[in-house]
Amino acid sequence: MNTTLRNAHALGVELVRLLAKADLIRANAFMQHGDTSCLVHCIAVAYVSMKLLEFLHLRYDRKSLLRGALLHDFFLYDWHTHRRAEGERMHAFSHPTHAWRNARARVKLNAREEDIILRHMFPVTLTPPKYRESVAVCIADKLCALHETLHPSCYAELKRIYAPAFKRAMHSDSSGGQNHEA
Ligand SMILES: [Fe+2]
Ligand SMILES: [Fe+2]
Fold it and tell me: Using CA atoms, how far apart are residues 24 and 14, in angstroms rounded to an integer?
C-alpha cells in the first residue's frame, strides 16, 4: 500500500471510530469556514498534518495525530452566532478548551492528543505546542482555514467520499457518546 492510500485508510479508520465513540458527527452541524463544517475541516486538517510530517520525513504517532486533529475543533456551537447568543467574545482563545472538554467527556485522551487540541490556536493562545504532532496540526489548521476561506467549495470530493459514513453515523443509535473508551 502506498503512503497516500495508507494515510487515507488510517484517517478513515480513526474517523469511523470517533463517529461511533465520540459522536463526532455532531461537529458536522456547525459551519467552520465558508460552507465547510467543523467536521470536514477537522478531516482536512488531519490529512494535511500527516502529509506535512511525511514531507519532512519526521517520525510521528499517527493514531494520536489523527485523533487529536479530528477532535481539535469539537467545540459544538456555531461560533458565528455564539458571541451574540452567549455573550462570549473570545471564541478564538476559548474554543480549544471547549473542544478538549467535549472530547475528554467522550473518549480517553493521551498527552499528545490533549496538546494537539489545546494548543492548536498558537500563537493566538500563548502556550506553544509541545509535540511535533501538535505543531503539525497547528500549522495545517492555518493552511486549511485559509484554503477554506478562499475556496468555499474546496472539499466537494471529500464530502462525497465521506457522505455514507456521515449518514450511517447520523442514523446510528447514539447514546450521546458519554464516557466511552476509545
Ligand atoms: Fe480551532
Ligand atoms: Fe481548526
Answer: 11
Sign of the C-alpha dihedral, residues 34, 40, 45, 48?
negative
Which chain residues have CB less than 5 Å from ligand 1, an ion? 73
- Please list, residue by residue across 13-46, b when 16 or more beta carbons sit within 10 angstroms of its beta carbon and e when fewer do: ebbebbbbebbbbbbbebbbbbebbbbbbbbbbb
Q: Which ligand is nearest to the CA of 144?
A: 2
pLDDT in tens, the chain (182 residues): 788 889 889 999 999 999 999 999 999 999 998 889 999 999 999 999 999 999 999 999 999 999 999 999 999 999 888 777 777 778 899 999 999 999 999 999 999 999 999 999 999 999 999 999 999 999 999 999 999 999 988 999 999 999 999 999 998 855 444 444 54
Q: Which residues, in sequence order, are bridge partners of residue 33?
A: 36
Ligand number nearest to the C-alpha of 142 = 2
